[in-house]
């Protein structure tokens, strides 16, 4: 493998559902003792426990993917559902040992002898991220290269917005043909991003039906080998909605991923070609105030943390990372990329 592997068993043990649910109940019970008027009956307690319990998550830190995968195993894995394989990324902070992996910010895997891309102003544009498909080749028939580099003509929502189709530039590179550019030769950036790199986890996206999935019924019928299979698939969406908070982030992964099914934020959009990948916002888990259940460790896979926001005037680098130096698509949004038969990239950005 080119990428480091995300150790799902390790993270699932650290963030086990049993532990997280016990923490949620302890938090609510302690709060009821302090503010009994907020809980007129046991139903109110249970509603709050459900709200604070493990739920669907946008995958931005190790705890999120570990939680989502455990919830899927609990509710979806034994149901008959159409699936699509996907490689999901959780990020480590810093520069990777191999510059050719999936990463955001930092040093790109750009050929040192190749001209740097220029924007409409005539100035060099900013390297934003690269997606490495070397470990995901089996998800596609063929691709124009091994690594897709993404450049932007300035800062999102400052210099350009999601309707400016000329703001992003995409360049395919083959790993074997590159002598990467030296740091001293990378042009000065407008969008300064702290480097992070991805650890990969192979999983699936589940189709649970919906008005956006026009062929849902026929897909489920073809996959089902018995009426029982068909009924179990039909009940999947309702089971998620009944049991978990934010169920829409359980069936389909939302975050940085290759392949699978796009987890649309603002509704499905028709783009030419097939879904290639999504580049999510880099938004590591923070503690934001005294109402947090516990100190959530590991905002990144290699940073024990936790990161703290809004508690002290002076914080060390180990406690907080400047949010304005992390890739953010609006309010924790995603960039969706589609590849057509001619090899052209089509894109859109959605956010909350």
Structure, explained:
With 352 residues, the chain is an alpha+beta fold. Helices cover 22% and strands 20% of the residues. It has a single domain (4-350), classed as Roll (Hypothetical protein YwqG fold). The strands form two sheets. Strands 1, 2, 3, 4, 5, 6, 7, 8, 9, 12 and 13 form an eleven-stranded mixed β-sheet that branches. Helix 1 (8-14) crosses helix 4 and helix 2 (17-34) crosses helix 3. It is globular and about 65 Å long. The chain starts with a strand and ends with a strand.
Which descriptors apply to this entry?
352 residues, alpha+beta, 11-stranded mixed beta sheet, two-stranded parallel ribbon, 13 strands
Rounded to an integer in angstroms, the radius of gyration calculated over CA atoms is: 21 Å
Question: Which strand-content bin applies to the residues?
Answer: 15-25%
Fourth-level CATH superfamily: YwqG-like
Q: Helix proportion of residues, in percent?
A: 10-25%
Give the C-level CATH assignment. Mainly Beta
Low-pLDDT runs: none
Please give the domain count.
Answer: 1
Total number of strands: 13
CATH architecture: Roll
User: What would you call the quaternary organization?
Assistant: single chain
SSE series: EHHHHEEEEEEHHHHEEEEEE
Stated plainly, the CATH topology is called Hypothetical protein YwqG fold
Helix-strand category: alpha+beta
Overall pLDDT level = 90
Overall 3D shape: globular
Largest sheet: 11 strands, mixed
Give me the number of helical elements: 8
CA-CA gap between termini: 34 Å
């Amino acid at each position: 493998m080119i990428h480091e592997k995300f150790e799902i068993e390790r993270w699932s043990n650290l963030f086990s559902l049993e532990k997280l649910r016990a923490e949620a109940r302890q938090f609510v019970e302690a709060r009821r003792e302090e503010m009994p008027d907020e809980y007129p009956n046991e139903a109110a307690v249970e509603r709050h426990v459900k709200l604070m319990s493990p739920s669907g998550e946008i995958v931005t830190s190790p705890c999120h993917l570990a939680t989502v995968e455990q919830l899927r195993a609990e509710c979806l894995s034994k149901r008959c559902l159409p699936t699509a394989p996907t490689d999901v990324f959780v990020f480590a902070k810093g520069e990777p040992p191999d510059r050719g992996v999936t990463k955001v910010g930092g040093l790109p895997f750009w050929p040192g002898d190749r001209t740097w891309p220029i924007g409409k102003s005539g100035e060099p544009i900013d390297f934003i991220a690269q997606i490495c498909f070397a470990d995901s080749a089996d998800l596609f028939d063929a691709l124009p290269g091994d690594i897709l580099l993404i450049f932007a003509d300035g800062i999102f929502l400052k210099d350009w917005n999601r309707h400016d189709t000329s703001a992003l530039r995409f360049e395919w590179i083959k790993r074997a043909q590159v002598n990467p550019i030296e740091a001293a030769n990378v042009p000065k950036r407008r969008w300064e991003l702290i480097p992070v790199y991805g650890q990969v986890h192979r999983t699936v996206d589940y189709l649970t039906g919906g008005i956006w999935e026009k062929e849902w019924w026929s897909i489920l019928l073809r996959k089902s080998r018995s009426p029982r299979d068909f009924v179990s698939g039909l009940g999947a969406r309702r089971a998620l909605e009944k049991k978990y908070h934010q169920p829409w982030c359980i069936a389909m992964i939302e975050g940085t991923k290759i392949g699978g099914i796009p987890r649309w934020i603002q509704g499905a959009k028709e783009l030419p070609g097939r879904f290639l990948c999504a580049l999510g916002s880099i938004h590591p888990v923070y503690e934001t105030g005294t109402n947090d259940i516990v100190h959530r460790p590991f905002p990144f896979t290699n940073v024990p943390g936790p990161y703290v926001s809004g508690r002290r005037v002076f914080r060390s680098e180990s406690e907080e990372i400047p949010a304005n130096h992390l890739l953010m698509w609006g309010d924790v949004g995603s960039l969706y990329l589609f590849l057509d038969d001619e090899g052209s990239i089509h894109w859109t950005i959605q956010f909350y």
